[in-house]
Each structure stands twice: as structure tokens, then as C-alpha cells.
UniProtKB/TrEMBL annotation:
Pfam families: DAO (PF01266), DAO_C (PF16901). It comes from Pseudobowmanella zhangzhouensis. InterPro entries: DAO_C (IPR031656), DAO_C_sf (IPR038299), FAD-dep_OxRdtase (IPR006076), FAD/NAD-bd_sf (IPR036188), G3P_DH_FAD-dep (IPR000447). Residues 8-361 form the FAD dependent oxidoreductase domain. This is Glycerol-3-phosphate dehydrogenase. GO terms for molecular function: glycerol-3-phosphate dehydrogenase (quinone) activity. Residues 381-487 form the Alpha-glycerophosphate oxidase C-terminal domain.
Length: 506
């Protein structure tokens, strides 16, 4: 099927920055198309430390502007997406030979006061007793607040927000060539299933993440204005190291820090590393050296010791950071740069370099603002006060209680997961369900056919990996047989609904 359609804006890249840009632009009245070569959020954006945070350690590198911007965003995002985000208290054990207490107090004072805090409590000193999960030699430390986020769902919800404002979202569709034709951008797209087609636009945004520089190789007569530095960050997932809902931030002798965070009720997420990376971003994988580093760091602090045999899963993401000539990977700036290229005065090309998940909304706002000369009728940014889909509520417990009353036939743990994933959109998922049998086959751990169909039809999922590791995290729990059963069910669709759904919208 060959499709020709014109858009105000085409966004290349379906990570958190790309979907954030699409949502911002569409909400301002632009006609938007977003294409992603793999699944939405399948690269860097789903392989983070799952934190919306100011970046306490960035203060040591004097990135005060970035920290201030990120701290302010915590409150905005937490208010707009209470289903996929929640406050998280961090414990920072003190090791006097690594950083003096006065320096940590100063850093935490700045962290508390660089931006206003509406809901998150401030920092304080703490002492550990015999009940602490930390080793007995660690007697004192500090606590402070940040925010947990389901990063992959943040991407999906931004894509849904964009679609609700009229955008067309296509995943598993690679951009193969870009040129100028009749004073428009002409973009050639190749779906994973189906024939290639072309679309045109008045403006183009390159939000390809780790591929942001290499995409210029597909654009006629353009060269990348900046190069990025690829830094690999790896995590391990192990059975819970400690009881309680708090996370830990651990200092290491090399100056790095790692987080140990509660993950999916039964696990701990340990990461991240900072390793220079050269190679295809999709091929990034944890090394034995990284595994040893994370295990040794955790074992240095916690009474409960872990080994490689405890690892349930791992993931590695390649962060596309600005090449600021820092010698050490962990010192490379996490800030973003928006580069405008008006080589043709009538055809804007905007590229987003660098950035971190916490500031994705500000990056998106900055990118779309640069398009005002091209689209003077475009309205002002609305995303600061615009809840993400399903986020129009304030309290998870209250929402869960209401859902339990209305859908008492659904197991409460499943409804609780729905709240964390879909928020108020749970009611859309359960539309016309009157009894448990209406949810269809249970593929395991409360993953019912009704939810699978919803994820395929409404959230661009087309394979088991999309569902088990990004739309949900049930890949940690389902057996190989259960996962194969899900794959067999999805294979009954003649085409991935993601592609067919998007083509219909075209």
C-alpha cells in the first residue's frame, strides 16, 4: 500500500523525547506524524534507572542549571502522571572517606532549595540501628526525596496523548531516506510489514536518540551539526535485597554512585554503570565486569549478600550524551541541546541532542517553540498542566478502592497493577466486562486476553516482548510456556495491529 499524506511536522524517533515532542506539537494544533524504527521506547527510554530526579551527583559537576530544571520538573510530572510515578525516599549511607558529611549536607541543602517542592519532603540526617539492612559498620546517613517512574509507560502515554490530539503514531517503521521536494520534506518510510511509502511535511524533527547523528546520513545534502557520545548504563534485577519501600544511593570509591531501588514488589533494581560504548545501540548488553561492579557495590553496603546466581534479569541502555570532552563517562553532561538547521529558510530541521528522561517535557517544549516562525498560528505550550492519559486523579488508593467496588470480580492485585499502568483508563480497558470470564484467557499472573487486546489495539503492541517488558513488566514472572502461549496468541493477527492501526489513521 502506497500512501501519500502531508503533515505540518514529522518526528523521527519514538523514545521519550520524540513522543514528548509529538504530544506537545499536536496539543498546539499541528498535524503530526511520528515514526519509530522499532517499538516505542524500546531503546534508551525503557532502560533507565526509572527515576525522575534532579541528579544529586550532578551538583559535583557544577551543573546547577540542569539540576534546578530537573527538580522543578519532578513536581510537574508527578502531578500529571500519578499512575506511573510516585514519590520515593532515598537513603544515602555516609562513608566519611568518600565524601565528607559537610559536603553532603551542602549538596542536599541545594537539592532541597534549588527549586520549589510542593509535595516532596526535604532531606534530613538519620542513624541506623540493628534493624537496618545495612552492615553494622554503617551507622549514619541521610535521606532525601525523588520520584519513581515507569519509563516505558511514560513513552506510551505521551504517544497516546499525541494521538488524542490528532497525531499519527507508527512504530516498527524505519525512516530510510529524507530529501527536499517542492519545498517540502519528503520522507520515505519502510514498515516492518508492508510496502514502503512516502509522506511530506513542512518541518522535520530528529529525535532519534542514539541514532540522532547517524540519521543525517539518510538526509540529502545535510551533515550532523554535532556528534554525540554513547555511554552504556547497565542494571541487574535481583530478588529484594531489603524490606521497606525506600531506595538506596550508594557511593563507590571511584566516585560513581549506584541506586538500589524497589522494583515490581518482589525485586531490587541495581544500577547503573557508566561505560563508554561504540557499536550499534541495539546490541548493547551488560558485561561481566559490569555485573561484578554492581554486585560488589551492593555487597559492600548490605547485610544481604548477592551473587550472579541471584540475577533474574539484566538490561543495558545506550545514553546519547553531548560530547563535552569530559574524560570520564560519568562526568559527561546530561543536559540537552536543541539545534536548528534552516539550510533552506522554508524548511526547518530541528535536532534534539542529549537530555535525560526527567527533562523530556522541557526539551519537547523547547523544540516545538523553535517552530513558531514556521507556524505563527501555533498556540502556547500546554503540557505543564495537561495530565497524561489516565492521570486525571490524585490518589492511587482512592482510585483502587473505587475500581474494586465497580469491578470486584477482578483480582485485587491485578486491579492494583492496572492502576499503576492505566490509571483511570482502567475503565476503558474493562469496558463491558461484567464477570471474570469476560476478561478471556489468563496467560499468567493476571495478564488476561482483554488486556492483551487493549495493548494491541490501543498501545501499539505487536509482540510478546512489547507487552511483557515495556507495556507491563510481567516478563519477570511468566514462565517460558506462558510467554510462548502469549506469542502464539499474538501470531493469530495477520498483521501487527500497530502497523494496521497507523495505516488506517494515515
Amino acid at each position: 500500500m502506497v500512501i501519500a499524506e502531508h503533515y505540518d511536522l514529522i518526528v523521527v524517533g519514538g523514545g521519550v523525547n520524540g513522543t514528548g515532542i509529538a504530544a506537545d506539537a499536536a496539543s498546539r494544533g499541528l498535524k503530526v506524524l511520528l515514526c519509530e524504527q522499532n517499538d516505542l521506547g524500546s531503546a534508551t527510554s525503557s532502560r533507565s534507572s526509572k527515576l525522575i530526579h534532579g541528579g544529586l551527583r550532578y551538583l559535583e559537576h557544577h551543573e546547577f542549571s540542569l539540576v534546578r530544571k530537573a527538580l522543578a520538573e519532578r513536581e510537574v510530572l508527578l502531578k500529571n502522571a500519578p499512575h506511573i510515578m510516585h514519590p520515593l525516599r532515598f537513603v544515602l549511607p555516609h562513608q566519611s572517606h568518600l565524601r565528607p558529611a559537610w559536603l553532603i549536607r551542602l549538596g542536599l541543602f541545594l537539592y532541597d532549595n534549588l527549586a520549589s517542592r510542593a509535595t516532596l519532603p526535604g532531606s534530613r540526617s538519620v542513624r541506623f540501628d540493628a534493624n537496618s539492612p545495612l552492615k553494622a559498620t554503617i551507622s549514619k546517613g541521610f535521606t532525601y526525596s525523588d520520584v519513581w517512574v515507569d519509563d516505558a509507560r511514560l513513552v506510551i502515554l505521551n504517544a497516546k496523548a499525541a494521538e488524542q490530539h490528532g497525531a499519527t503514531i507508527i512504530n516498527y517503521c524505519r525512516c530510510t531516506h529524507i530529501d527536499q521536494h517542492d519545498n517540502q520534506w519528503r520522507v520515505s518510510l519502510q514498515p516492518q510489514h508492508g510496502q514502503s511509502f512516502q509522506v511530506t511535511s513542512d518541518a522535520l524533527v530528529n529525535a532519534a536518540g542514539p541514532w540522532v547523528s547517524s540519521l543525517f546520513g539518510d538526509i540529502d545534502n545535510y551533515q550532523a551539526p554535532q556528534q554525540i557520545r554513547l555511554v552504556k548504563g547497565s542494571h541487574i534485577i535481583v530478588p529484594k535485597i531489603h524490606d521497606g519501600d525506600e531506595a538506596y544511593i550508594l557511593q563507590n570509591p571511584d566516585g560513581r554512585i549506584i541506586f538500589v531501588s524497589p522494583f515490581e514488589q518482589a525485586y531490587s533494581l541495581v544500577g547503573t554503570t557508566d561505560v563508554e560504548y561504540a557499536g550499534p545501540p541495539n546490541d548493547a548488553a551488560i558485561s561481566q565486569q559490569e555485573i561484578d561492579y554492581l554486585i560488589n557495590s551492593a555487597n559492600h553496603y548490605f547485610k544481604h549478600q548477592i551473587t550472579a546466581n541471584d540475577i533474574v534479569s539484566t538490561y543495558s541502555g545506550v545514553r546519547p550524551l553531548m560530547n563535552d570532552e569530559s574524560v570520564e563517562a560519568q562526568k559527561v553532561t546530561r543536559d540537552y541541546t536543541v539545534v536548528q538547521n534552516w539550510q533552506n529558510s522554508q524548511l526547518p530541521l530541528i535536532s534534539a541532542f542529549g537530555g535525560k528522561i526527567t527533562t523530556y517535557r522541557k526539551l519537547a517544549e523547547a523544540v516545538v517553540d523553535t517552530l513558531k516562525p514556521k507556524f505563527p498560528a501555533m498556540t502556547a505550550c500546554r503540557t505543564q498542566s495537561m495530565p497524561l492519559p489516565g492521570g486525571d486523579f490524585t490518589d492511587r488508593d482512592t482510585l483502587l478502592a473505587a475500581l474494586c467496588q465497580d469491578y470486584g470480580f477482578v483480582p485485587k492485585p491485578t486491579l492494583a497493577r492496572y492502576v499503576r499502568q492505566f490509571g483511570t483508563d482502567t475503565r476503558q480497558l474493562l469496558l463491558n466486562c461484567m464477570q471474570l470470564i469476560d476478561l478471556g484467557q489468563d496467560f499468567g499472573c493476571g495478564l488476561y486476553q482483554k488486556e492483551v487486546d487493549y495493548l494491541v489495539q490501543q498501545e501499539w503492541a505487536s509482540c510478546a516482548e512489547d507487552i511483557l517488558w515495556r507495556r507491563t513488566k510481567l516478563g519477570l514472572q511468566l514462565s517460558e510456556e506462558q510467554q510462548q502461549s502469549l506469542s502464539n496468541y499474538l501470531a493469530m493477527f495477520e498483521l501487527p495491529i500497530t502497523t494496521a492501526k497507523s495505516v488506517v489513521n494515515l
